[in-house]
Amino acid sequence: METPNDNFKSGFIALVGKPNAGKSTLLNQIMGQPIAGVSFKPQTTRRRQLGILTTDEYQMIFTDTPGLNNAKDKLSQFINNEVRFALEDADVLLFIADISKQLDELDHELSSLIKEKRSTQKVILVFNKSDLVGPGQASQNKQAFQALFPEDPAIEISARTGKGVAKLVEKVHFLLPVGPEYYPTDQITEDFERDIAAELIRAAAMENLDDELPYSIAAQVDEYKERENDMLYIHGIIYVEREAQKGIVVGKKGMMIRKISTEARLAIEEMTKNKVFLDLQVKTQKDWKNDPAFLSRIGLAGAGNNA
Ligand SMILES: Nc1nc2c(ncn2[C@@H]2O[C@H](COP(=O)(O)OP(=O)(O)OP(=O)(O)O)[C@@H](O)[C@H]2O)c(=O)[nH]1
Ligand SMILES: [Mg+2]
């Protein structure tokens, strides 16, 4: 490992924003590979996840966070605390907003929370999904977001196409303090691949299931083994809250679970750069969102200060 030079900069950068703003997509774009689960449904992310980007000049430790949430169960309490911890730990806050949408109540709540928790942190407003609006469009939305943080810089990006993302990383580089390498040069996250695999399985299920079902599921990987020829064997469990939901996840003649499994497998293969054999099973875990032992087993309980 090279010794970082005197100007080497490092720090924590929290990605915060409403559910569905594109935080996890941005993390994956910055990292150049899927490490966070993404779906078009809000509330895909449930816990903090690190993406560590190291070059000769800097180490940026990005923290993807869940979108704030108004529900009252134990899972939601955990989710909202994850956002608070990430805000406190960060050097730079990226407030990510979908500029194709108007500002709403949750954006106001989030901005109050940021202002309440902010001490020395720099804030950058990140106007995401610029690919969805034409040039000169959405200026009212941008102004409304900017009015929440009138003193702070803004940048327009598309996390999906990557447009503006390199510029954003440059801005972050400029704002970071001089500091050490906190993590080994080649480490890209703190999570084990098997836990990321579980997130990718859950995201694939969320993407394909309708109505309230996406919020009733949890995913766990209970077997993760390398077999001959670099083939990974993964056994995953998708948990539902009620017995009646099992059939929907499995689908007619197993169609749904096969679709979920294929999408999850492709994402896991992209992450691990391995061929993957993915075996999925569906189980019922009654009222799991309020079951402390279960939440703890799948990593969604406790202070969880993984920074
Ligand atoms: N068109 C377009 N879609 C985007 C962009 N960024 C994200 N999306 C889509 O927006 C949806 C939500 O993206 P996520 O990255 O899961 O959003 P998130 O902020 O992590 O959401 P939570 O985890 O629920 O808080 C997905 O369907 C993404 O593909 C973008 O720049 N342009
Ligand atoms: Mg997310």
Characterise this structure:
With 307 residues, the chain is α/β, with parallel strands linked by helices. It has 2 domains: 9-175, 3-Layer(aba) Sandwich (Rossmann fold), CATH 3.40.50; 193-297, 2-Layer Sandwich (GMP Synthetase, Chain A, domain 3). It has 9 helices and 9 strands. It has helices at residues 23-31, 74-89, 105-117, 139-148, 165-175, 193-208, 243-250, 255-272, 292-297, and strands spanning 9-17, 49-54, 58-64, 92-98, 122-128, 154-156, 218-227, 231-240, 276-284. The model has no long low-confidence stretch (mean pLDDT 91). The structure holds guanosine-5'-triphosphate and magnesium ion. Magnesium ion is lined by residues 23-24, 36, 44-45, 64.
In what range is the share of β-strand residues? 15-25%
Poorly predicted sequence stretches spanning 5 or more consecutive residues: none
Kindly state the number of beta strands: 9
Major sheet details: 6 strands, mixed
CATH topology name of the largest domain, in short, is Rossmann fold
Which class best fits the helix and strand makeup? alpha/beta
Run of helices and strands: EHEEHEHEHEHHEEHHEH
CATH class of the largest domain: Alpha Beta
Silhouette? globular
Roughly how many Å apart are the termini?
22 Å
What ligand species are in this complex?
A: guanosine-5'-triphosphate, magnesium ion
Q: What is the tally of helical segments? A: 9
Q: What is the domain total for the residues? A: 2
Radius of gyration, rounded?
Answer: 20 Å
Strand order of the largest sheet: 2-3-1-4-5-6
Helix fraction bin = 25-40%
- CATH superfamily label of the largest domain: P-loop containing nucleotide triphosphate hydrolases
Mean pLDDT: 91
